Amino acid sequence: MQNRTPGNTQGIDVSRYQGSIDWAKVKASGMTFVFIKATEGRTYIDPNFQGNVTGALAAGMMVGTYHFFRGTSVEIAKAEAAHYANTLNKVGGAKALQLPPVLDYENNPGNLSKAQINTVAKAFLTELQRLTGVKPIIYTGNAFARNFDASLGSYDLWIARYSSTRVPDEQTAWKRWTFWQYTDSGRVNGISGNVDMNEFEGTAQQLRARYTAAAPNPTNPTNPTNPNPNPPAEPPKGGEPMTVEEKAAFEALKAQVDRLQARQQMEVPVWAKAAVEAALAYDAKNPLFSIDNGASYDFYRFITVMHRRGLFKK
């Protein structure tokens, strides 16, 4: 496969083993993306998952997640995919993140044949894409990658090979890597101890563009695959008088907010707090909404997406 290239953007992957992370320092150190462990098997959730996602997003990093796979049958593979997808909903769903979800398949606890390995992998990947609407990535080791057949080559590859002199081997399914995990003993400001280091096969701009299709549509969060060609304009800055056009756009946005709030009410989830606070602070004299009695999941997701797109910046 190809070698690392100067100018390729750098990132990390983390789990509970990295402990408390100062994400602002991580971003300032030059890391542009991160894959965060979400789940393992059919029941386990990494205890730092939500906090890591919230912190990394707040620091301005591109965020993806991964699931450590233990499946030994099609039924278990589908159950693991459902567990992963349900856990992603705690942070707004796979489409609320900048990078796709990842199948981390690196060992064979059930002593499966190569054919069985491919069958359970495909079952997981197909089910996860059905549940999330996002095509996953495959993570695996240089040696274990030999188990995968050519039919899995349509999935982007994130491969582990810890070497400064040897590139990952060409495989039946892949001739190039999309992400290369090149060491498990990296050091990054903001993290105590070692951390896995990764490189994307291009610049940060190219990484962002590659997975743009996976990003949610801010004007239609309940159906992100059907974008609205005429999104509402940004509401006026606080304290400035509205033009007729601005008022119409603001009222259209407020009507959509009202519709979302009319659904089942819930308290502000941790992943939406920053967005809600920014939206309420945008124009305190003429607030866009009130959450005194809670709001719906779709509403919080909508506000979060609008916040990430910079709508509430003054």
Automatic annotation (TrEMBL):
Compositionally skewed regions (Pro residues) per UniProt: 218-235
GO biological process: carbohydrate catabolic process; cell wall macromolecule catabolic process; peptidoglycan catabolic process
GO molecular function terms listed in the Swiss-Prot or TrEMBL record: lysozyme activity
Manganese found in the keyword field: no
Enzyme nomenclature, EC number: 3.2.1.17
Transmembrane portions of the chain: none
Superkingdom as given in the UniProt entry: Bacteria
InterPro entries associated with the record: GH, Glyco_hydro_25, Glyco_hydro_25_AS, Glyco_hydro_fam25_subgr
Enzyme class (EC, first level): hydrolase
Coiled coil: none
Region (Disordered): 214-241
Alphabetic keyword roster: Glycosidase, Hydrolase
Catalytic activity, reaction form: Hydrolysis of (1->4)-beta-linkages between N-acetylmuramic acid and N-acetyl-D-glucosamine residues in a peptidoglycan and between N-acetyl-D-glucosamine residues in chitodextrins
Annotated family: Belongs to the glycosyl hydrolase 25 family.
Protein name: Lysozyme
Organism per entry: Paenibacillus sp. AN1007
Lineage: Bacteria, Bacillati, Bacillota, Bacilli, Bacillales
